[in-house]
Fold this sequence. Notes:
11 helices, Rossmann fold, elongated, Helix Hairpins, alpha/beta, Alpha-Beta Plaits, single chain, 3 domains
Amino acid sequence: MGRIIFSQIREEIPLYIFIYIFKRFFGHLKKERFYRVVIMVLLLVVGGGVALGVFEKNLSFFDALWWSVVTVTTVGYGDISPVTPGGRIVGVLLMLLGIGSIGILTATLAGLFVENRLMENRGMKKVRVENHFVICGWNFNGADIVSELRSDRKGRDRPLVVVASLEEKPLDDPNLHFVKGEVNREYLERANMKAAKVAILLADDHLNAEARDACTILNALTIKNLYPKVYICAELIGSENVDHGRMAGADEIIVSGELSTNLLVRGALDHGITRMITELVSNRYGDELYKIKVPAYLAGSAFLKVMSKLKEEHDVLCLGLERGEDGKLIPNPEKDYRVGASDYLVVISDKRPRIS
Length: 356
């Protein structure tokens, strides 16, 4: 009995999928008034078949309808031909009208697809992806951010949505979608923010430093109030605004000005070390920094043992950990520190480790 039910379900699923696609497709065509052109062509076909049946007495209605379809579409099989003067006049009229009607039909259909594509590139369509990253704002770092995401296994095929006041889609990426607008309820809904995984807030290049941070903080507050489950990574210019960013709900804050200053000082004090730091934070070349779950067989072990095992067995270097209980980051813990099962390890590896 179970096999019979499963077989029936398996046979019916493709039919349900076809019906769903059919309804969505023709629902869209109806919305775009495409049905008027379809009705015009159908009337021409049916009218031509009926008119031919009036003059050609030896033809059935279905044969006359078949001839009308073949004539209108300019296929011309030749299996059925009118022999009476009236039938031939109907044929001439149907040929002339059919060429124009089919041309209008195909042009209208092509125009709908072109218009849909243009609307997507101009950010006027609602996004329907899920578990995606939303990039709010766009600046000179935007293209590099997308490139870095695509270089990592977790971000290679992940849908991305850009919400920004741009004229058109900023990059030619088939899995990158664009919504033209500001960070408010209307445009965040259009970007399907409720189903998003992460929101990346970029500073606006067109504003001064203080206004940039104020805008970023306001955007973080808006997103966190509307969608509290979305993880927010925000870019700030001044370190004095970090507390405001955290109060606004940003989960992770990068101070671009402070970071570049620290790197410059570190490069001056320890020559060449910034090249290693650049390599570690880039997904496009060299080894990278990753955060991984503590392997089950190492839970409860001392940090020194965890570090040694990962290096010996997986050639992965462990630098520190993030406590699972409160999210506190502990770089270079004590050698006897007991690693918990809910903790995360911060490691260096040539690719994202898969260790269970």
